[in-house]
Amino acid sequence: MEVLKVSAKSQPKSVAGAIAAVLREAGEVEVQAVGAGAVNQSMKAIAIARGYVVANGIDLICIPAFAKITIDDEERTALRFQIEPR
Q1: Which end of the chain has less neighbouring CB within 10 Å, N or C?
Q2: Which residues of 45-56 are buried (b: 16+ CB within 10 A; e: fewer)?
Q3: Cα(5)–Cα(18) distance, rounded to whole angstroms?
Q4: What is the DSSP string of 23-83?
């Protein structure tokens, strides 16, 4: 499964386009976000992506979970959003 990493400075429309493209091609995608700003941009992107794929007959769902990741040799808690068709 492809993992898209989102930051607080990511553009939601760009991330949404990437989510839609991967979802159409692979059938599922994972989005990772660390911090409130990144989570905010991720959720906006997921909502926008839902509109992008509805024309293809895809009704996406989002399954949130916590994940431990390492950034600069430091363990951080990220939010992971698994996105797949319903």
Answers
A1: C
A2: bbebbbebbeee
A3: 11
A4: HHHHS-EEEEE-SHHHHHHHHHHHHHHHHHHGGGT--EEEEEEEEEEEETTEEEEEEEEEE
Show the tokens assigned to 37.
């700003």
pLDDT in tens, 55-80: 888 899 999 999 998 888 989 999 99
When the candidates are 3.30.110.20, 3.40.50.300, 3.30.450.40, 2.60.40.770, the CATH number that belongs to 2-85 is 3.30.110.20
User: What is this structure's pTM?
Assistant: 0.90
